[in-house]
Prior knowledge:
Layout lengths: L2 H16 L5 H15 L5 E9 L1 E9 L5 E2 L4 H9 L3 E3 L17 E8 L5 E9 L7 H17 L7 E2 L1
Helix pairs in contact: 1-2, 1-4
Bound molecules: methionine sulfoxide.
Amino acid sequence: xxxxxxxxxxxxxxxxxxxxxxxxxxxxxxxxxxxxxxxxxxxxxxxxxxxxxxxxxxxxxxxxxxxxxxxxxxxxxxxxxxxxxxxxxxxxxxxxxxxxxxxxxxxxxxxxxxxxxxxxxxxxxxxxxxxxxxxxxxxxxxxxxxxxxxxxxxxxxxxxx
Length: 161
Ligand code: SME
């Protein structure tokens, strides 16, 4: 399976999994499990959602992670604060990177949005391989982030200040 086929499969499955359910909790939990099952060479896949002034840990697969991330901290904070995808080839070179799992060497973080366009959280995937995520991964995961953004009623989980 090439990368395009992989992400077609991932996004078709994600669409089917979230159809008929608007609560973010099961949708994010299943999305994390799906990433974990389908993506090679990753050591963490999951979500942080907005809670007041910062991010709080959501559903994930991988080792236990830091619970709260301020918006001025880490790759996740940058993605949420700037509302911009962060594709980081070497996390050790990223100012303020938070090393939850010392095995992480590269990562991609994508913002999630509610129906008004506000950032409600981020999707974070980490890898022990440097430069693991290319444009193809970014394109495939952008579709996943959009799908999840639209599938969920964020008011059931997220409190925005
Ligand atoms: N890498 C993130 C922290 C979260 S963990 O990797 C699960 C960051 O620097 O934002």
